[in-house]
C-alpha cells in the first residue's frame, strides 16, 4: 500500500485524496516512511519535519471532510529546495554561513503551495548558494543519484531531483540559474521546468544571480509539473521583476499533448563534438518520435550560443559577488572572530572565510575581478553584449519555429568526485541550458531514455519563447505518451532498486 | 596577465574574504584558467551591440504609500548572531583613536 502511494503520480494522489480513497495523512506518512528507508543512502534532504507535515496533512483531511473547496493538489506532499524560505524551518542554501538560520517569513512560492493545501515534507539539498552542477558543493555533503549511488544527481537542485527519483516525494521545487532544474532532471530521469523569467516569484529566494534565477516545478510526469506550475506561477507584487502576465494554460497543454503542425527547431550549435554517443542517439530518436506525431522538424542555427557559457560565467559571478555581500555576519547567520580583538570589517572577512565553501569563494573572487575598474568593459560589459546576441538568436529562431530542442546535458550523470577539482570541466555541463537563462525564455527537460553505454537517463531540452511556457508542456506530454508506450511504463520504473550500502550512509543536519 | 597569489589576496580583501595561503596558491591558477576561457567574450567586440543587463525591461515598482505591518522585531533579531537592547550588536566599527 505505502509503496503504491510513493510511486503514484501527484495527479493520481490528488484524485484519490479528493475522493476519500486515501487520506493526506496516509500519503504523507508513506513518503516519510520511504525517507526513513532510503534517505541515509540518497541524502536528498537537509531538513525534514515529519510532525509539521503530518499536521498540515491532517488539516487538509479535516477541510475535505468539512466539505471545503480545495485546490487540485490539496493534500499532496512536496519537497522544497533549501534556497527558498519556509517560515519556522531552517534555510541554509547549502551553506555553513546560514547554518541554523530560521527565516521568519515564507517565500511566495512556499506561501502559494501552503495556500493550495500542498504538504511540505522538508528542504532539499543543493550546491552551496546553488553554485554547481553536481550537489557536491553542499556544505552538508553530497546527494547521491538514485540510479547509481556513486554518481551525481545533478546540480544545483540535486536534492529535489533525487527526492523524486528515489520516490521520497511526488513533487519538488527547484531553482534554475544556469540549468539547476533541467540538468538534475536530465540525469535522474525526471521532469524539470524553468518557467519564463518573471513567471514565478523570486520573493523569498536566497538570490544567486538575480537576472537569471527562476524557481520552477520538478516532477515525475509532465502533467504533475504543470499542476504545480499552475499553483506557484503568476504575478507577485512582492517581486519587482515579476511578469505582470497571466500564466499560460500549462495544465491544458500537458493534457493535450498535441504537436501536429508544430514547428520544432534543432539547434545546430547544441550537439556534435563533446556529446556522449548515447545522449545523441536518444535525442535523435526523440526528435523522430515528435516528427512521427506530426511535428515539422527543421535545423536552426544560433551562432551566439557558442559564447553563452563564457558570458554566463562572467555575469553570474558578478551578480553573485554583489548578492552574497549580505552574508557579512552582522544581521543573521554565522559570525566568526567576534572576540573583541577584531573590528567589524575584519569580522566580515573572517566570517566569510569560515562560512563559504571553495566554489562560492572562487565565484565571488571572479565576480569581484570582472567588475573591478579596468576590467569591467573587457569582461562584464562584453558578456552583457553576448546576452543581447543570444536573445537576438532566440528571437530569430522563434520567428521560424514554435520551440527549439537540444540534449539537456552533453553527458549522462558523471561519478561523484570526478570533476570536483576541475571547475572548467564542471561548467561545461551547463552548456545547453545556459542560453535560456541569459535570454529569460521558458525551458524544460524531459526524460527520453537510457544511454546504451551506461544505462543512465538522458534528457531532451525544449525551449519556448518568453511567456509561451505551455508549448513546453505540449511537447513534453506528447513525448511522454509515445515513449512510455514504447517503454511499457515510466522511465523511472527501469531504475534499479535502491540498495543501501553502509559506506554510503551519512547524515545531514536534521 | 597571470594572476599572482598577491592579486588574489587583494581581490579577497575587496570581497571581504580572508583567504589562507593554501587557498591563494590554489585559486590563482584556477582563476587564470577560468579567465582565459571566458575571455572568448571579447571576440564579440562590435560597438553597435547594446549590452543587456536583464531579460525584462525593468521599471521601478511602487506600492501604495500606506503603513503596513512589518516583521516583528523579535522575529528579525532571533536570527542575529548577537543582539542587545532590541538592536543588532555588531563589532566595533571605528578604530581606537576615532
From TrEMBL, chain A:
Sequence similarity: Belongs to the amidase family. GatA subfamily.
Active site annotation, chain numbering: 81, 156, 180
Catalytic activity field: L-glutamyl-tRNA(Gln) + L-glutamine + ATP + H2O = L-glutaminyl-tRNA(Gln) + L-glutamate + ADP + phosphate + H(+)
Keyword Electron transport: no
GO cellular component: glutamyl-tRNA(Gln) amidotransferase complex
Identification of the protein by name: Glutamyl-tRNA(Gln) amidotransferase subunit A
Function: Allows the formation of correctly charged Gln-tRNA(Gln) through the transamidation of misacylated Glu-tRNA(Gln) in organisms which lack glutaminyl-tRNA synthetase. The reaction takes place in the presence of glutamine and ATP through an activated gamma-phospho-Glu-tRNA(Gln).
Taxonomy of the source species: Bacteria, Bacillati, Actinomycetota, Actinomycetes, Propionibacteriales
Gene: gatA
Top EC class for this record: ligase
MF annotations from Gene Ontology: ATP binding; glutaminyl-tRNA synthase (glutamine-hydrolyzing) activity; transferase activity
UniProtKB/TrEMBL annotation, chain B:
Any Pfam family hit: GatC
Keywords assigned by UniProt, alphabetized: ATP-binding, Ligase, Nucleotide-binding, Protein biosynthesis, Transferase
Family, per entry: Belongs to the GatC family.
UniProt-listed Enzyme Commission number(s): 6.3.5.-
Physiological role: Allows the formation of correctly charged Asn-tRNA(Asn) or Gln-tRNA(Gln) through the transamidation of misacylated Asp-tRNA(Asn) or Glu-tRNA(Gln) in organisms which lack either or both of asparaginyl-tRNA or glutaminyl-tRNA synthetases. The reaction takes place in the presence of glutamine and ATP through an activated phospho-Asp-tRNA(Asn) or phospho-Glu-tRNA(Gln).
Signal peptide annotation: none
GO biological process: glutaminyl-tRNAGln biosynthesis via transamidation; regulation of translational fidelity; translation
Catalytic reactions of this protein: L-glutamyl-tRNA(Gln) + L-glutamine + ATP + H2O = L-glutaminyl-tRNA(Gln) + L-glutamate + ADP + phosphate + H(+); L-aspartyl-tRNA(Asn) + L-glutamine + ATP + H2O = L-asparaginyl-tRNA(Asn) + L-glutamate + ADP + phosphate + 2 H(+)
Assembly: Heterotrimer of A, B and C subunits.
Protein name: Aspartyl/glutamyl-tRNA(Asn/Gln) amidotransferase subunit C
Gene name linked to the record: gatC
Major enzyme class: ligase
Gene3D superfamilies, A to Z: Glu-tRNAGln amidotransferase C subunit, N-terminal domain (1.10.20.60)
Amino acid at each position: 500500500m505505502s509503496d503504491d502511494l510513493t510511486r503514484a503520480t501527484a495527479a493520481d494522489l490528488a484524485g484519490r485524496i479528493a475522493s476519500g480513497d486515501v487520506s493526506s495523512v496516509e500519503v504523507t506518512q508513506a513518503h516519510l516512511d520511504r525517507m526513513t528507508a532510503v534517505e541515509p543512502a540518497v541524502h536528498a534532504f537537509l531538513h525534514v519535519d515529519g510532525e509539521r507535515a503530518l499536521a498540515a496533512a491532517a488539516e487538509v483531511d479535516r477541510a475535505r471532510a468539512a466539505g471545503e473547496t480545495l485546490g487540485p493538489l490539496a493534500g499532496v506532499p512536496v519537497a522544497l529546495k533549501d534556497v527558498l524560505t519556509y517560515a519556522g524551518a531552517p534555510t541554509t542554501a547549502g551553506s555553513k554561513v546560514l547554518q541554523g538560520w530560521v527565516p521568519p517569513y515564507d517565500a511566495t512560492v512556499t506561501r502559494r503551495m501552503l495556500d493550495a493545501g500542498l504538504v511540505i515534507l522538508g528542504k532539499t539539498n543543493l550546491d552551496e548558494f546553488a553554485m554547481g552542477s553536481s550537489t557536491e558543493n553542499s556544505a552538508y555533503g553530497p546527494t547521491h543519484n538514485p540510479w547509481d549511488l556513486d554518481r551525481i544527481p545533478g546540480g544545483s537542485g540535486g536534492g529535489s531531483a533525487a527526492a523524486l527519483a528515489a520516490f521520497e516525494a511526488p513533487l519538488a521545487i527547484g531553482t534554475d540559474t544556469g540549468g539547476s532544474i533541467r540538468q538534475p532532471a536530465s540525469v535522474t530521469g525526471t521532469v524539470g521546468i524553468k518557467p519564463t523569467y518573471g513567471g514565478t516569484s523570486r520573493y523569498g529566494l536566497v538570490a544567486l544571480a538575480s537576472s537569471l534565477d527562476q524557481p520552477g516545478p520538478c516532477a515525475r510526469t509532465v502533467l504533475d509539473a504543470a499542476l504545480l506550475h499552475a499553483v506557484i506561477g503568476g504575478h507577485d507584487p512582492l517581486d519587482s521583476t515579476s511578469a505582470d502576465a497571466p500564466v499560460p494554460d500549462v495544465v491544458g497543454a500537458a493534457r493535450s499533448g498535441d504537436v501536429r503542425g508544430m514547428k520544432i527547431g534543432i539547434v545546430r550549435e547544441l550537439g556534435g563534438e563533446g556529446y556522449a554517443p548515447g545522449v545523441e542517439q536518444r535525442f535523435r530518436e526523440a526528435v523522430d518520435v515528435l516528427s512521427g506525431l506530426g511535428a515539422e522538424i527543421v535545423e536552426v542555427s544560433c551562432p551566439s550560443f557558442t559564447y553563452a557559457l563564457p558570458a554566463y560565467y562572467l555575469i553570474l559571478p558578478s551578480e553573485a559577488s554583489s548578492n552574497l555581500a549580505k552574508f557579512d555576519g552582522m544581521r543573521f547567520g554565522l559570525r566568526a572572530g567576534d572576540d573583541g580583538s577584531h573590528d567589524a570589517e575584519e569580522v566580515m572577512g573572517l566570517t566569510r572565510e569560515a562560512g563559504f565553501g571553495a566554489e562560492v569563494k572562487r565565484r565571488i573572487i571572479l565576480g569581484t575581478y570582472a567588475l573591478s575598474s579596468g576590467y569591467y568593459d573587457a569582461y562584464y560589459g562584453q558578456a552583457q553584449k553576448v546576452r543581447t546576441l543570444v536573445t537576438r538568436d532566440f528571437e530569430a529562431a522563434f520567428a521560424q519555429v514554435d520551440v527549439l530542442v537540444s540534449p539537456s546535458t552533453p553527458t549522462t550523470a558523471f561519478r561523484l568526485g570526478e570533476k570536483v577539482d576541475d571547475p572548467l570541466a564542471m561548467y561545461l555541463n551547463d552548456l545547453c541550458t545556459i542560453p535560456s537563462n541569459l535570454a529569460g525564455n521558458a525551458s524544460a527537460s524531459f526524460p527520453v531514455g537510457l544511454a546504451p553505454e551506461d544505462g543512465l537517463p538522458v534528457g531532451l531540452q525544449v525551449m519556448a519563447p518568453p511567456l509561451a511556457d505551455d508549448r513546453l508542456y505540449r511537447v513534453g506530454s506528447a513525448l511522454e505518451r509515445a515513449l512510455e508506450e514504447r517503454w511499457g511504463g515510466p522511465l523511472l520504473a527501469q531504475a534499479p532498486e535502491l540498495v543501501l550500502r553502509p559506506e554510503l550512509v551519512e547524515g545531514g543536519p536534521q | 596577465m597571470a594572476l599572482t597569489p598577491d592579486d588574489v589576496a587583494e581581490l579577497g580583501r575587496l570581497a571581504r574574504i580572508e583567504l589562507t595561503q593554501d587557498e591563494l596558491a590554489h585559486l590563482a591558477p584556477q582563476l587564470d584558467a577560468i579567465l582565459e576561457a571566458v575571455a572568448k567574450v571579447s571576440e564579440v567586440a562590435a560597438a553597435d551591440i547594446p549590452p543587456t543587463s536583464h531579460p525584462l525591461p525593468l521599471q521601478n515598482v511602487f506600492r501604495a504609500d500606506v503603513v503596513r505591518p512589518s516583521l516583528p522585531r523579535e522575529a528579525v533579531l532571533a536570527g542575529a548572531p548577537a543582539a542587545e537592547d532590541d538592536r543588532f550588536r555588531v563589532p566595533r566599527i571605528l578604530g581606537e583613536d576615532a
